[in-house]
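dumping this here before i forget
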Amino acid sequence: MTASSQTRVLAIGAVLLLAARPGVAGPRHYLAADETLCSSPPVACIEGTLSYEGNERLLWLTGRVDTVPGPGLFIVTLRGSNRLGHVRHAPMEIALRGHRGEIVDFRMIPDYPDVANWRIDRIEFRPGPANRTDRRP
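structure:
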């Protein structure tokens, strides 16, 4: 085999290895899987899944509004700590139109890249249309 054909074989092998490689996304951690997340007091609830993608640092809440008194802001505050023990908080502020069955698909990257052990700390609901953050023209 000549040097040129060896180079070709190695290049083809490298391409095949890259194409066959599993997805690069890190492990997905479920903070709530198919659960009802309710504010305290329970005036607003979302049935859904809250997860954290490790490599992408993506917090993701998907689901549907179960109960809600009207439009407002549904806030899920997550708590985590880094290796040094410093506690961090990441609020997920989700504007709701106030309709039962409303689809929720909210994603965010928290400000703290050194935290991977997020958990739900508290959930609250702030009523009022002035709290909407998804204003569109």
